[in-house]
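User: Predict the structure for this protein chain, please.
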Amino acid sequence: MNTKSDASSDMSEVYLNRNNDPVTGHDCIRGYLKTLDNSPGVYRMLDAESRVLYIGKARNLRARVSSYVRPSGHVPRILRMIQETASMMFLTTRTETEALLLEQNLIKQLKPKYNVLLRDDKSFPNILITQNHPFPQIKKHRGARRENGNYFGPFANGAAVNRALNQLQRVFLLRSCSDGTFANRTRPCLLYQIKRCSGPCVDKITPKDYAKTVADTSRFLSGRSTKLQAQLSAQMQEASEALEFERAAAIRDRIRALTQLQSGQGVNPQGVSEADVIALSLNNGQACVQVFFFRANQNWGNQDFFPRVGGDFEEKEVLEAFLGQFYNTRTPPKLILLNHDIENRDLMADALRQKHGRKVNLVVPQRGEKLELVSGALRNARESLERHMSRTASQSKLLDGLTTALGLEEVPKRIEVYDNSHNQGAHAYGAMIVSGPEGFEKKHYRKFKFKGKDFKPGDDLAMMKEMLERRFSRLLKEDASRANGQWPDLILVDGGAGQVKVANSVLSEHGIEDIPLFGVAKGRERNAGKEEFHRVDGTTFMLPLNDPVLYFVQTIRDEAHRFAIGAHGASRNRSIRSNPLDEVPGVGARRKRALLWHFGSAKAVARASVDDLTAVEGVSVALAEKIYGFFHEQS
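Assistant: Here is the predicted structure, written as structure tokens:
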């Protein structure tokens, strides 16, 4: 029995007919009405295999669920969902706002088939000015705000932050180097020479003057920089009159950089200091949501999103679902401007206030500057959707062609491509990339560092075996029912008969017999365009040289190769940058810096005697013996 209490309750029951088969559709849903009251809460609709079809929230659970019992009046999407429903689950809450917050969390976790789903859940970068140093650092920051300092953002993407940082360094000359690099400088770096840093590491600027520059930077990023350009102009005039032409030229360059930074912001509204402008374009069952970030009366870029929708969603439904998921893990601004109203605007505003602890206004502007901002965002959304639909149409044709060329029974929605990379066995990494109707799905990419007991450096077949073994063992453990869309419809491995044989043996060992598998080899002459396709039965075939499907396979194979080489190269670079002192027990960052400062290099530290090591500040006799023993035992 479902009861209402301070803690949410959960209920699920499957109804059976006389033949002990699950009752589905309207009859199944009708069976739950007698157990429901008028509480607010969240409901889940599940199919016969207990896969979540839909998650919804309700002010009154009984009234909401009873709407599904009606035999008519439903759009096709809802009708299909009802017909597939074999069971339901319910969670009651104290308020409808709590139900809305819980609904968004569950949608993010379970990704139901019939919900609007925001597929791109990446974080947005910020600019951080640190506070834990006499000469604060300015840098790009992404992720949780754990470091002490002032954060400014969000910016739409990393490129927008990098452009802003580049111009900010020209204007304000703040340091961008790490604290460790700063502490070890003995002479100015290149950034000082090209006038992008004031050189605080070598006392080229006083702490007082540097603090003033930090304050100017913070004022600019907060939108309080109206007098900054006038101040710089006065300083340039003063330097010119004093015949200090080099200083005047440097200030002139800073004014130019400031002008370029301000003009590069695009539309800078006067009456909107802090807002997200969100516009939705919906066309033929596809949607694009364009988000513009305005902070400190400045445009900090825009980003488009393509949520998964069906053919019969209305704008208000898509936009409300997007807002709930988008701000589930992101702090909203004080003002959110929309091009469409949503059904539960006050409820959404209250949910955002409760979740993030700040008042948020949702507004659909009708006139003035705010309407112009929304109109501009809508224009961008329409253009982005047109480009996206054109790309997906081309991708769809290629997938249809691939289906025919490989003799597949269905068009693959998820293609996984596997490759590995190493340098004579060193820094070996495997890579898996994913492609589908939307193109490359980069958030599903995976890399594998080989570590198995049977791994032999340079053995490509052993690497392929370990990679696939780890991938499908985990997949069977996490999603054995194949309900979450993480299983491939087609597997391509880079290589010939050997790789295909190994891959097929791994799949067979795990009882996986229904996923098509092919190897893609470059052929005897190893020329692009003469690829050989290897089947599991040992036969091979080729595609015509100018076949678009061949080019498509080359593209996704090359993407896997690029990703594998990237993982291998990053490992190699980390190895090159690594320092033997990092592995010495008891030697932290401070003592490592002191040792390198005293001896000049790790090699010199390795050659030093115990007496020489104890001459370094902070190194005791016990630690000196430990360092000496570490290097000489290695030798």
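The mean pLDDT is 85.
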